[in-house]
Write a structure and sequence with these properties.
Largest sheet of chain C: 2 strands, antiparallel
Number of domains of chain C: 1
Shape of chain C: globular
Strand content of chain A: under 5%
Distance between the termini of chain C: 27 Å
Structural class of chain C: mainly alpha
Number of strands of chain A: 0
Chains: A mainly alpha (218), B mainly alpha (315), C mainly alpha (488)
Radius of gyration of chain C: 21 Å
Helix content of chain C: over 70%
Strand order of the largest sheet of chain C: 1-2
Order of helices and strands of chain C: HHEEHHHHHHHHHHHHHHHHH
Radius of gyration of chain A: 18 Å
Largest sheet of chain A: none
Oligomer: heterotrimer
Order of helices and strands of chain A: HHHHHHH
Shape of chain A: globular
Amino acid sequence: MSAETVRTIIDDLGALLLFTMILILAAGQIYRAIYAVAAQSLLIAIAAAVLATATGNTDLWVIAGITLTVKTIVLPWVLHRVVRRMNVRREVEPVIPVAATLALAVMVVVMSFHLSATLGPVNQAITGNALPVGIALTLLGVLVMATGKTALNQMVGLFASENGIFFTAMAVTQGMPLIIEIGVILDVILAVLVMAIMVLRVRSTVDADIAGLDRLRG
Amino acid sequence: MMTGERSLGLLLFEMTFLVLLGPLVTGIIQKIKARIQCRQGAGVLQPYRDLAKLFRKGTVQADTASGLFRLIPVLVLAATVAAGALIPVVRAGPPSFPLGDALLLLGLLALARFLTAVGALDAGGAFGGMGASREMTLAPLVEPVLMMVVFSTAVAAGTTELGALAAQRGTSWVLAWHAADFLGFAAMLVLLPAETGRIPVDNPDTHLELTMLHEGMLLEHSGPGLGCMLLASHTRQIVTLGLVSALFFPIGPANGADAAGLLLGVGAFAAKILVLASYLALVESSYAKLRLFRVPQFLGIGFVCALTALALRIL
Amino acid sequence: MTETLLWVLPLVPTVTALLMLTTRDRRILSAIDVCGSAILLALTLVLAREVAKGGPSALGLLRIDDLGLVFLLLLVVLTLAVSIYTVGWLKQAVAVGNMRAESLRSYFALVHLFVATMVVTVLADNLGVLWIAMEGTTITSAVLIGYHGHQHGLEAAWKYIIVTTIGISFGLFGTVLVSAAAAAHGAVGADAMSWSAIMKIAPMLNPGIVRIGFIFVMVGYGTKAGLAPMHLWLPDAHSQAPTPVSALLSGVLIKCALLGIIRFQTIAAAACGPAFPAEVLLVFGLTSVVVATPFILAQNDLKRLLGYHSVEHVGIVALGLGFGGTIGTYGALLHVVNHGVTKALAFFAAGKAIARYGTRDMRVIRGLLAVAPIGATLLMLAALSLAGVPPFSIFVSELMILRAGIGQGHWVAIAIFLAMVVVIFAGLLHHVGAMAFGEPTETATREPEAWSPLLGMMLLAAIMILLGLTIPASIDGLLRRATEIVVG
């Protein structure tokens, strides 16, 4: 397919990714956030597949496959299991009100686009709108981690952040070496496992609400 | 949709068509809702019967209401129907004489909303005041988002005139969708229940004080006045649906023959409206009404989507 | 020869870790521990000699040059000291119940895995491998921090893993940006992420994107290094971890993160001119020093005090790198070594004191000199050194950094720096003096001091004093060559 089509598709996927990100930010219940981040990972896998067919880079097929299995299915399933075991049902108000979070999100998006507009020449190395969308997704993921009150919200934010980085990395025209991408995914898996274990251990001693974990001060 | 200019006759036809079709759309939504809820539901033409019944009855007016109160229903209906004139129904193209653009449409809808609220306050009842204040609280969240969505689509076409906008889009609507359109469409989907006064923002089926926004403002009207207000809300609904279809799916047959082309254009429009109406019915059946202070959060999603769509277009 | 060593070095601690899993006996575990660390040190010394003779050498994704060698030597020396210290410390910890005897082998295995990931961090030539190894250190050390299993430890470990993972995500993004800039200039595949390859084309890279990439990296790896305002996890993590782990964290891990920053600093200096990364480093360094000071003064918890000290000293290293020039960079690198050694010594001594008194609260610990004279002396020496008193090593490196700053004319920064150092000196002396002198508290155990922790501590103290009095020619040469790599 032509470069123009690839560019359009990447742009469209970028917009959909931003939409899922908004859903994560505004999610009241943790289940919605988990589904949204799974949808986001699915979109990333589709983007990888599209870029793979366009550039002929076989590494990207592997990335698409791994992203699909691991980040779309396995990891959200793990999170789902943790949520069910922790029996968190009620809606938890975030640290700052949702309206303020959404306002911050808008500022982040505008800032990312402005930022990447000042980086003119490198846009040749990164397809389409992937750079500003990537920056926006990464920063918004960090926003989710920072404003998330429960441990699970923070983990979802971590996934979303990694998705943003991956999106940008994939769109770099020459592609990152395969070993790096696999290593990054492995690290995410391990981090999530460690965190899941920690959450379950923390729950056994204290409330899983991170807001309660403030005894270390000064 | 065929492109080309729309003559005065065509405009009048489209306007009448919208007003006549409005109650039918409401009836269809009610029927779909009933079917999903495993009921029979009233017939699809029930809103017409309700309107006919109301126009036959006499008016009862509160003592505290002024002369303006009797004028309000007519003014609201006039504003909404005038808004309907701006929607390209059958043919995509600018009107043959300067009529107005999408901003005027939004302004007319806002004017209708304002007049309704003024009328409710004028009657002096408690429900009216409450409904009016709630409706006005939500209005600043809804109208700017509508404008941002219109702008984000208008930037590419270079005009805010709806007919010309639809003509510019052309018939290949899916592939012509820019990245920003996905977000704009998402914002509109969030806004539709708000603008048409349906769950999860407002409950159109009850007159209970806990659930009503729009209905609260209608409480003091009676007889033909109430009939006008109801007709205005039906028309407002179909005008909003028509706005969405003009901005995002201006598809339809592209030939120029007159009577057959007209019928096909009408058919295409009806099909799109049917799809959007089903969406509204589905949303109404799937969700519960949000508490009033949660509505801004819900609308905030639409706001962010619209703003991001605008940012994606401009930046 | 060097190429073989390059892939053997990360393997040694990995094999040691695996060996740990075979036995449960504490003494055998400690023996494997010390042996593994000693072998690692010996191999590193061989590698150092080879590099001194032959220059940098590379093997695929790994590479060793003098800059990396500085950090690597620090790492292996501290590992050995930690292993020696752990022999005696563990015996006491198991007896008291802080460490469970059944899970000792996983503790040792994790420590050596942690060391292995740090070795890979230092040896990495590929920036992506650097990132992966950093994340690896986060994962292994997070488990170690929460190892005691009680609530505060878990809270500290959770904060640690969240904050550093956020930070490292920024670092990854910066890495991707820099590699995109390199890719735009034709670097293909693995070359786009190889530090040595990027350095060759660095002057031609697009300065705008390298600038933004460097800022992302600074925030990202700076979180791991403990620079303010990303340092919030550090006092919790370093204080809640078991003492040998704290020594490794404060002594080496934050320095490895600094190495990551230095690698990107060299790229940024070549692409955007040296002024830009220098300014960024100055800002972060000064903020760290200023932010750490009030917390040092108002501190009650001994290990948290040391944690805040690490923040301050990392800030000083950043200041040194920011002042730049040969003297500034040499001073910064020397400070990395000095602080690592001194901080580990301080943690060791503090750990013994805490074990003896059963509490970390400094207001309760009194009369240490009477109860444990050698330990108390070492604690005081470490504290004096941290405060920057001659003839200890930190004084030398701080003086060099000061001299560089004055030479460059950064008067405001120097003034603030000096003011903070004076304040910290006073505060630290107050704290430690109160702990060492006076009547011993009743809760202090009177048992004689174990020999192995003392041995570890004296080893470090010897290095500390040696580097304070004179810098041996081989180390001097190593530091000079490392400085050349940074300054260019």
